[in-house]
# Entry
Amino acid sequence: MMGHMTKDPALSYTPNQTAVCDFGMATNEKWTSKGGEKKEKVCFVDCRAFGKLAENINKYFSKGRAIHIEGVLELDQWEAQDGSKRSKHRIKVIGFSFVGSAEQTEPPLDREPNSDDYGDIPF
# Structure
């Protein structure tokens, strides 16, 4: 699924210190009717990511930014304070991709030195 973030991602942590990132996404469908009229339909979707994936989404994305996600549809069910039963579909994100030009979407190179870094030593 591909769309734009409807709000800034919200990062939180479980009691076990697992990162959880909740965000909303809007997807657009555009078409031309038989009569030549331009049509558009927007669908709003709630998404949730966990772990390092959640931390990266929170770090690199913000409201309005395009994102491509892979995930599974889950049904959350709970009981409201008034005793009524509630439910909501949400996408559990299992992967994401940056969308747009490299200049807009590539994160800065976060890299730690490792044994393969030999600096300016000529070989």
